[in-house]
């Protein structure tokens, strides 16, 4: 089995305030984090640059944006681009989050365009995929997830800059976590797809992380699955238990 790094992302979504992010980042700077876990925090875009100033010299984590438009600049009110993230020294971006897909009606094509632009600008991407409850109940989970991946794959020429986040929509923010078996089944299908599509050597190295109601209590069991290489965490990334999630493999 290939020894993949463990990866944990904290997606703060549209939460927090100046004072809250300062204390969260200072707490993380002080925390004992597993040095073998790669950690990326994604605060609202407004807070990225001041958050960057709070990173310590021996950075225990990196920063990421929660989205980025694919055009480099222009008349796109309200958007920020991958080129601007690069300019600002923000190395990561989350793309295709289900809240972007459902609330803001992003299509597979939008996600593919954004992925292409992010990689062209040298950013690393957390690419999110996941099925709705209705799709799961119809037995279509794997078909939906692989379809979303296929749509983005043609935009990816460097898989070493991509982490795939499997986030079943029905588990996000609901407190209804996928069982370790349910998650592992989809993660295994993603791994098999990667190996088949991009080859064994590259495909086995890509981190496939799980997101959806992960907390300090359920992280360890999920992390023990062979194809779960970490987490994308929403609600619990704003709480002290985030440290336990980062340390789930200890
Ligand atoms: P949650 O969100 O941990 O609050 O369920 C996960 C996510 O949306 O990435």
What would you call the structural class? alpha/beta
**Strand numbers in spatial order across the main sheet:** 1-2-3-4-5-6-7-8
Instruction: Please tally the β strands and state the result.
Output: 8
Largest sheet: 8 strands, parallel, barrel
CATH-derived architecture: Alpha-Beta Barrel
User: Alpha-carbon distance between the termini?
Assistant: 19 Å
Whole-number average pLDDT?
96
GO cellular component, one term: cytosol
Enzyme class: isomerase
GO molecular function, one term: triose-phosphate isomerase activity
Keywords: Gluconeogenesis, Glycolysis, Isomerase
Structural overview:
With 250 residues, this protein is an alpha/beta fold. It has one domain (6-26, 36-234): Aldolase class I (TIM Barrel, Alpha-Beta Barrel), CATH 3.20.20. Helices cover 38% and strands 16% of the residues. An eight-stranded parallel β-barrel has the order 1-2-3-4-5-6-7-8, surrounded by four helices. Helix 5 (108-120) packs across helix 7 and helix 7 (141-153) packs parallel to helix 8. It is globular. It binds 2-phosphoglycolic acid (PGA). 2-phosphoglycolic acid binds next to strand 8. It catalyses: D-glyceraldehyde 3-phosphate = dihydroxyacetone phosphate. Homodimer.
